[in-house]
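User: My advisor, Dr. K., asked me to get a structural model of this assembly before our group meeting. I'm new to this, so sorry if the format is off. These are the inputs:
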Amino acid sequence: MSNAIETRGLEYRIGRSFEIRDLALNVPEGSIYGFLGPNGAGKTTTIQLLLAMRRARAGSITVLGKRVPQEITAVLSRTGYVPERPHVDPSLKIDEALRFHAAFYRSWDDKEGERLLAQFDLDRSRRIKRLSKGETGKFLMVLALAQRPDLLLLDEPTDGLDPVVRREVMTAVVDYVSQRGATVFISSHLVHEVERMCNWIGVMDKGRLVSEMTTDSFKSGIKRLRVTGAPQSMADPPFVLLSRQPSEGVIEGELWVVRGWQAPMRDYFESAGARLTEVTDLDLEDGFVELLRTSRSRQPLEGR
Amino acid sequence: MFRVILQSHWNWSKLLLGPGVVAAFALPILSVQQINEPGYADWSPWGTAGLLRDVESWGIWYAALAAGLGLAIATSAWGSDHRGGHVYALSLPVERWRYVLFRYASGAVLLGVPILSFWLGALLAIASIDLPDSLHAYPTELAVRFALASLVAFTVFFAISAGTMRTAGYILAVIGGLLVAQLLLATAGAGVDPLEYVVDRLTSWPGPFEVFTGRWMLIDV
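Assistant: The format is fine. Below is the predicted structure of the whole assembly, which you can bring to the meeting.
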């Protein structure tokens, strides 16, 4: 499977406080890729780099098989973009903004635009500045979807929207993908939203890609283990140990968060003289938090 | 593409453009109104000289209107893009140079309206008066000059307003630096006047603002 988005060794710096380092993204064609990360992780900056709104210091970017920034016009003609904050002139009426937008896209589909406006209950004659936050979010999605893109870049498209509107917007995206087979790259810090719709996940923190894998492997392999009698150092675990800490309260032992867990791995504890008393599934949000915690505790060591 | 950019520019500039068109039409007519007043038609050499002085006194208003129109159209050219921090424009599938060119061209087209209005006003003004044989009217020549001056002002302000706040800061810093240098040199009695030098370079040929200076004469010998 080829990648709709691929970056290699991407470097970018804003002042002294923030930088993106050695970013290597692989977004498979046809995937719905959730780009997770806490606020300030560099998600928006990465998207802006992908769209050539910012210039990288080093590295390469390929989007839909085209080099960025050299072939950005060809990329943009096939990409629907919904930014974090509304970017359309708010003094325009919906109708005017649609006409303006349509003039730039050969693939623009008037009927689809009309259908989406009706689906989202948006009135063409209203000015954008008079729309509520939810209506604005829906309108930006109309612009992105009616141009029939091969790639949707959505930067926190549902941030601040109520659950009803959020579901409407994301349903429209999923419907579009199922019809068209487009690739979706959606950045968010709403883990549950990503969990529901994405089949790939990349986690970013402090300008670095911490992890990139299918949602299934992310969810299925992350467990919390309760372990008693474990020696301080245990050699070569068959899984990835994300965190290890004493359990709180009256229950003795330690809590381990691991990735890549499989049932036969219980033997490992017995061979080391420890006892595994409980295995708990973690949902994506717990896994995400543990992943970030591990990544942050490792970073100072890596820096030495 | 160009049509929608022109439409967008029109939306942003129509409130300024309307009065500009009226002013451009009215200014040449107002500048010769006194000739129709009773007792003015004194075509002796002294009377003719007086008429030319009167006509010339209106020149500053032609230059000011041309500059004002250029400024108004230029600042409104980027109005919609500034609102969205230029993110929308950057996300459109069009080369940046082409987008800038379209924005510039839309401004030039809109400027055509007050320029045409000015030309018509100048023709009407001349048609409404009787001139002695010693004087000639130059409505088309004045309109061409008005067009050039408007375009120069539009181009300069278009370039400035296209930039970021940082660019504007640099320009202000250069102007501020010149003023400070002027002050220091004057205090030290150095006999050098950098500000005058810069202004002179800009307003005399081949400086870009040369078109604004000199005599703007609808009627001349």
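One thing worth pointing out at the meeting: The mean pLDDT of chain B is 87.

User: Perfect, thanks a lot.
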